[in-house]
Fold DNA polymerase.
Amino acid sequence: MTSLFLGLKFLFIPNSKAGVSKIRQKLAVDHGAQICSAFGETSTTHVLVDTKVVLTANTEALIRTLKKLGLRDIAKTNVPVVGQEWLVQCVSKSELLPTANYTIDLARPSAKKRKVSSLRKAESRPIVDTTLEPGEKVLDSPNQTSVDVLNEMAEQHRINGEAYKVKAYRNAIDTLQRVSTPVTSYSQAIQLEGVGPAIAKKIEEISRTHHLRQLDVSKGSRHTQLMKLFKGIYGVGTVIAKKWIDEGMTSLDDIKNRTDLTDAQRLGLQYYDEWNERIPRSECTIHAEYVQYMLNRVDPLIEATIGGSYRRGAKTCGDIDFIVTKPDATMEALQADMDNLIDTIKQAGYLQCILHHHVKNKLLTGCSLPPLWNKKVDGQGEEWGKCRRVDFLLVPWKELGAAMIYFTGDDEFNKKLRYRAQKHGMVLNGTGLYKIVRDGSKERHELVESFDEKKIMSLLNVKWHEPEQRNTGVFDIAWNG
Ligand code: DCP
Ligand code: CA
C-alpha cells in the first residue's frame, strides 16, 4: 500500500474486472490510483492497455475501443495511452516512471508497431498470398483447422439466422485461406483484413487447443438444434422457425399437427429425410440423361444442362438445377415446352410433386428416377429412386451466358462478379451485363452482353474461370463431402 499513484485516474483496456486485468487494477488501487470505467476527458490521466490481450499493432481496433469508451478526439488528447507494463514497472521500482518508453502511438502506426514490439515477444506477421485470384486459397493451408472450425461456427450462425455474423466469419475465412504462414495468436490474427477482435480471439483459442468452446456450446444448445430441425423443412426460414420455437414446438410431430402449413411446407415434411440428404454426383448425371431423353420427346432442340454445384464439379449436390433453353427460343416458347414436359414426366412417374410454379421462369419440383434408370446409378435393384429436389430454370437463348454464370455460382463467386461489375459502372444479373447510363436525373441499363459467358467475364476484366474454379470454398460443404 503506497501513495505512488495518488491523484491518478486509470482507464484499463480491456475494461473488464476479471483475470489479469482484475489483478492489475487491484495493484493500481493498492497504490492510490482510482479506476475509471469510461474516458472522462478532464479526469482520466492514463489509459493502460493490456498489450497481451488488445492488439496494439492494429491501432484501428484500439482507437475504436477508445472512442466507444468516450475518447472522442484521439489527436487532441494529452492523456498517455500506455502498455500496462508501465504500471508493473512503476510498482516494482516504487517510482513514477516516465511513460515515453511505454507509449502506444495511435497517430503513427509504424512508430507504434516498433514500440509495441519492444514490449512484447516479437511475432511474425502473417503472410497473405496476394498472387491468388479472388476465391482462390493456398494449397495445404497451415491454418486449415482454424478454417474448418470457423466454418462450423459460421454454419451455427447461419442456422440461427444471424446473417451479419455469418458475413463476418466468411470475410475472416476468406482471408485466412489466403495466408501461407501459421496464424497462431490473437495479435497475428487481428492484423488480417476482415478479422475483428472476436474472431481473432477464436483463432488463438483454436490454434492453442484445436478446439473452440463456443462451438460446443452452440451445437449443444436446444435452440440451435430446434432451429436446425425446423429449417430443414423445405419452405421454412429463420423467422418461421423462431416463431415455432417461441410457440413451444419441440418436434416435427408438433409441426405436422399445425393447421397453418403451406403446401410446400407439407411436402417439406413428407420428404424431410430425402431433401436433407445430398445427392451423389453419379445420380445427378442419370437425372440429366433421363430429363434430356424426355425433353427429346417434346422437342429435340431443347437442351437441359445441370448448373449449380454439379457444374462446379461437386461430388454431391444439394439439389439438381436444370438450365433449360433452346436455340433462338424466347421465354414464352420455353414455357409452352415446359407445360408439355410436365405432362410427359408426370405420366412417366418421374415428377412426384410441384413446389412452386407461379414464378414464371422456374419450376421447382420433387422427382424420382424410374426403376430402370435408377438401376443405372448403382447397378442394383428394381426400385424407384429417392425423391430429389429438381429445379427447371427456363432461360431465353440470348440470355444463356448470363444465366449460366448466375446458376453456376457459387453464390460468393457471383457476389464478387457483381461487385466487379459495379466498379466498372455496370450491373450484372441472371439476364445480362448492363452498362449504367445516366440521362440527366434518370438512370437506365443498356445491355452490353448476355449470351456469351466468356465475353461477360472478359468485359468484367476477370480471367476466364472454369466452373471448377468458381468454388470459393467458404461454404461449399458439397465440396468437402
Ligand atoms: N445463387 C446465387 N445466390 C443465391 C442463391 C443461388 O447466386 N442467393 C446461384 C449460385 C448457386 C446457384 O444459384 O450456385 C444454385 O443455387 P443452390 O442453392 O442450388 O446452390 P449450389 O448448387 O451452389 O449448392 P448445392 O449443392 O447446395 O445445391
Ligand atoms: Ca444446387
About this structure: Confidence is low (pLDDT under 50) at residues 110-114, 474-481. Residues 281-298 form the longest helix (18 residues). The two ends are 62 Å apart (CA to CA). The chain is about 45% helix and 15% strand.
